[in-house]
Design brief:
Structural class of chain A: alpha+beta
Organism (chains A, B): Jeotgalibacillus salarius
Motif (RDXXRA motif of the pArg binding pocket involved in allosteric regulation) (chains A, B): 334-339
Number of domains of chain A: 2
GO molecular function (chains A, B): ATP binding; creatine kinase activity; protein arginine kinase activity
Distance between the termini of chain A: 22 Å
Radius of gyration of chain A: 21 Å
Strand content of chain A: 5-15%
Number of strands of chain A: 10
Domain Phosphagen kinase C-terminal (chains A, B): 24-251
CATH superfamily of the largest domain in chain A: Glutamine synthetase/guanido kinase, catalytic domain
CATH class of the largest domain in chain A: Alpha Beta
Largest sheet of chain A: 8 strands, antiparallel
Number of helices of chain A: 13
Oligomer: homodimer
Function (chains A, B): Catalyzes the specific phosphorylation of arginine residues in proteins.
Chain lengths: 359, 359
């Protein structure tokens, strides 16, 4: 398969569409955790109960009329599941489960509904750019529609009941994926990360808890799910995100002013590495992609699409590389494949721009 | 002035013509030191004697009919002299002298005749590739022609007399500029340099004694000028150079076999740096130019001309950069200018190849 076709099939709408503030906010995610009030929760249920739950969810989803398609974990190959994890459509936990768990996906992958992960249902909406309110509205719409056909575990005092107490209440996790090279280069993240903790928020790397902030990408999300409404939680997150956006913008302006040519040099060297290297580890790829994306945002680079960072941060993960290669790859083979995939992808942009490739 | 025009004017024939074994030997130089038997030698002569010598040389050169043009040191700006040094047409010593010293140059700069440097006359022939015999023949031709009109200091026992005793006898320095990335990468030069010393030869960096082997370029030349004929000296040098060529070739083959993709990666990363960096120090430029030239020799890179190493090693020296800029540049400005000159130069090749530039 040609790379262009492969990518066209693989890309989710949140990756390649520009959203509000997309020069800094890559994407917005809303997740709601829900459980049925009659079945045992996933950590303790039997195989039979798991199957009953899955069937109840299936029936409810179909009743809602949402055009979602189910992928059952037991029907998927390891590599296929890995790709879904890398696209943030399922969690690593769900991928490990082989019994009655599944994911329901919309065609352009902005909606994903995990079944029998830590909770019976996890509704997720993924939007490009900063769209907390829009994503919340959509998630609550789906939530309401499901609730008509699925009896949620709900407590008058606590709110929605969940397996993990940290999700009790709203069951909401709102998170925003931010590209913060300016704050990283000016060494401000070490100050910001503890500061946002005071607002009940947390900053994580691109693949969640414990993962590194590869490519200067941070997920900022709420920790607190209890005692505030969904609207207040997203409002508070939005407030902090707005401030971080402003700080990132001033950091970038300061960098351009204080070391314009050095910054341009860094950006273009990274572009050179992406366009020509033959062996590329994921960490270096992420660093270079971040630089190039910054270069696009600052107007240094013109003929590369902005979605390059979102797309390639995901498509150069081990799962995707192996799916594109059509089988297992050793780490060094992945580094070679990663380099060639990135070269080809950039070549697509250059060719579009000039009607011809140059090497 | 456009870069293309500037380079066309600046390039010497030995830089951009392919000579024998030019995948490893960049150029060949023959230098003969000669003095007049009646005037005091340059280290001790008076201003008047210096002037007399200069006039005697001038008269002799004109008698020979060689179409050489004289550039008097006292008429040149510092920057112009620096450029001549960088092109190996005059020595740094001559450039420092402002009295009666000069250089006579042929149109394509394959012949240069320094007057009143350490010796009254230094005849130099510069040829592309490995052409020791050809360059020696040409130098001796000029030498013979001059001798008819200029009375050489010659001793029956010692041969030609020179200011420095290390040049007495033949007054000959034969040297070959070799590009030896394979031997450097396989750490063999530390063994080879002392070994060739046993043959009365010495290996130096690109700008002579004490200079670093920037860009993996070594000048191999004879130390001994006495007790052997000119032909034997060049023959012995040729013999050693042939062996080094063979060793460099096997080193390259071994590298391709043992680490083909890593080598290709190194070559292309360097190409990326040269094509896109905005600030480039001379040391890194030399390293990258060496890598790219190796990549051309190994067939990894196809649309860049082989002369890129010879040309750009010289045109990215401080003198040239400042001449092209039209005035003095601070070191950081030179690094910026160096990067942009190299980018433009590579762009010329790419454009020729594809009829359009890509960034």
């Amino acid at each position: 398969m040609s790379l262009e076709k492969f990518l066209n099939q693989a890309v989710s709408s949140w990756m390649n569409e520009d959203g509000p503030f997309s020069e800094i906010v890559l994407s917005t995610r809303i997740r709601l955790a829900r459980n049925h009030n009659q079945y045992a929760f996933p950590t303790v249920f039997t195989k039979e109960e798991a199957e009953q739950t899955a069937q109840a969810v299936s029936a409810a989803v179909k009743e809602t009329g949402y055009p979602l398609e189910e992928l059952k974990m037991k029907d998927l190959q390891g590599l296929e599941k890995r790709v879904l994890v890398e696209k943030h459509l399922i969690s690593p936990n769900l991928a490990e489960d082989t019994s009655s768990s599944s994911v329901w996906l919309s065609d352009d992958e902005d909606i994903s509904l995990m079944v029998n992960e830590e909770d019976h249902i996890r509704i997720q909406c993924l939007f490009p750019g900063l769209q907390l309110k829009e994503a919340l509205r959509r998630a609550l719409e789906i939530d309401d529609a499901l609730e008509e056909h699925f009896d949620y575990a709900f407590d008058e005092n606590f709110g929605y009941l969940t397996t993990c107490p940290t999700n009790v209440g709203t069951g909401l996790r709102a998170s925003v994926m931010m590209h913060l090279p300016g704050l990283m280069m000016t060494h401000q993240m070490n100050r910001i990360i503890p500061a946002i903790g005071q607002f009940g928020l947390v900053a994580r790397g691109i693949y969640g808890e414990g993962s590194e902030a590869l490519g200067n990408i941070f997920q900022i999300s709420n920790q607190t799910t209890l005692g505030k409404s969904e609207e207040d939680i997203t409002e508070d997150l939005l407030h902090v995100v707005d401030q971080i956006i402003a700080q990132e913008k001033s950091a970038r302006e300061a960098l351009v002013k204080s070391s314009g040519i050095q910054l341009e040099d860094r950006v273009f060297r990274s572009y050179g590495t992406l366009r020509y290297s033959r062996v590329l580890e994921s960490k270096e790829a992420a660093k270079c992609l971040s630089d190039v994306r910054l270069g696009i945002d600052l107007g240094f680079i013109e003929n590369v699409s902005r979605s390059i960072l979102n797309e390639l941060m995901i498509f150069t993960q081990p799962g995707f590389l192996q799916q594109y290669a059509g089988g297992f790859l050793r780490p060094v083979e992945r580094d070679i494949r990663r380099a060639s995939l990135i070269r080809e992808r950039l070549e697509m942009d250059v060719s579009k721009d000039k009607g011809g490739s140059d090497i």
